[in-house]
Automatic annotation (TrEMBL):
GO terms, molecular function: calcium ion binding; calcium-dependent phospholipid binding; phosphatidylserine binding
Region (Disordered): 16-40
Keywords from the UniProt entry: Annexin, Repeat
Entry GO CC: cytoplasm; nucleus; plasma membrane; vesicle membrane
Species: Trichoderma gamsii
Protein name: Annexin
Similarity comment text for this entry: Belongs to the annexin family.
Length: 364
């Protein structure tokens, strides 16, 4: 069945005049309220290094050099060091990379590229670069493809804090010499661009912003009108809200319209637009690691064609805090009745598979 939507243009919520019961649109706060900004994720704010303790990397730096000297490569040693818990924080691994450079006058990334290959090499390079530069690299590759890889774009940009988005756009400009928003606009058709424009603008409500029942009631009414008449309104509302507000909208929408917001979106949207909106909602309705578990499971259904997605999603969970990984592991076990590590080991092989399972907590 072909899904049709009649689009009627009217101002987006952020442009509307103040009305009784909903004095501010999604993502906006009442004037005079100072909302604490959501901190950047590990590896996205250089100020995090001020809180890092100095790590003794001498043994591991020497072991890395030994592993890549001569004609061969000790892949087991690389997996052991790169997945070591003491280098879990990206800036801790940066210490190792810098010490390797300073002590041996060598570039770790270049040595990795000279001694490894394929998916194993890609994952090691990503770990050496850290999450911020890996995001920039992922975006750049996605935007160079024809057609562009929207799944990769969504993986990097959706459901992120304003601090993360600002770090990503700044680093993209610094390393690529061009503006991310302009680049996306040049590559994207007009229908899909508004979603990315909203996300890249980094104007999402901060996590500390309160859930206002009057706002939620107004927004779900506007969501229903947008679903029926103008999909841009739906995009505007969902990309502007924080997780708690999105969760409240999902609950209130079901209570008022007797179906889930996800069901409404599936009925009226198509393709990447539908996928993006559902991803935003799934990230907040999947409690206790379920969203991460499902995101990891999806590419494992066809691992031969999804190595890049597997690598990205494993690293995102790995670079998060330990609680996030523990929740993802528990949710995976509960949903799929087997350990996540087991599926990684069965679906992936060789040095690459060993690295992915080690990052998730498997034996080295």
């Amino acid at each position: 069945m072909v899904k049709l939507r009649i689009c009627i243009t009217y101002p987006l919520l952020k442009q509307q005049h103040t009305q009784p019961g909903y004095p501010h649109g999604p993502g906006q706060q009442p004037s005079g309220h100072n909302i604490e900004a959501t901190p950047a994720s590990p590896g996205y704010d250089i100020a995090q290094t001020l809180m890092m303790q100095r790590i003794d990397t001498s043994a591991d730096a020497g072991a890395l050099l030994t592993a890549m000297l001569g004609s061969g490569c000790d892949a087991h040693a690389l997996v052991r060091i790169f997945s070591s818990p003491q280098y879990r924080h990206p800036y801790a691994f940066q210490q190792l990379r810098n010490d390797y450079r300073d002590w041996f006058k060598r570039d770790l990334e270049k040595d990795i590229k000279g001694k490894t290959q394929g998916d194993f090499q890609d994952a090691l390079v990503a770990l050496a670069r850290g999450p911020l530069d890996h995001d920039v690299s992922t975006l750049d590759k996605a935007l160079q493809q024809r057609p562009i890889d929207e799944e990769a774009l969504m993986g990097v940009l959706l459901c992120r804090s304003n601090a993360d988005i600002m770090a990503i756009t700044s680093q993209y400009r610094h390393t690529k010499g061009k503006d991310l928003l302009t680049t996306v606009k040049d590559k994207m058709d007009e229908r899909r661009f508004p979603l990315y424009r909203n996300v890249i603008s980094a104007t999402r409500a901060e996590d500390a912003a309160a859930v206002n029942p009057a706002d939620i009631d107004y927004q779900i009414t506007e969501l229903q009108r947008g679903i029926e008449e103008n999909g841009l309104v739906v995009t505007e509302i969902l990309t502007s809200a924080n997780n708690a507000q999105l969760r409240a909208m999902c609950i209130a929408y079901r209570q008022k319209y007797h179906r889930s917001l996800q069901e409404a979106i599936v009925a009226e949207f198509l393709g990447s637009e539908e996928h993006a909106l559902l991803q935003m909602l799934t990230s907040v309705t999947g409690e206790n690691g379920k969203a991460d578990a499902d995101a990891l499971r999806e590419p494992l259904r066809d691992p031969l064609n999804n190595k890049r997605a597997i690598t990205y999603r494993v690293l995102r969970v790995y670079w998060g805090d330990r609680a996030r990984l523990s929740k993802a592991q528990a949710a995976y076990q509960s949903s799929y009745h087997r350990p996540l590590v087991t599926d990684l080991e069965h679906s992936l092989d060789g040095d690459y598979g060993n690295l992915m399972s080690a990052l998730i907590g498997g034996d080295v």
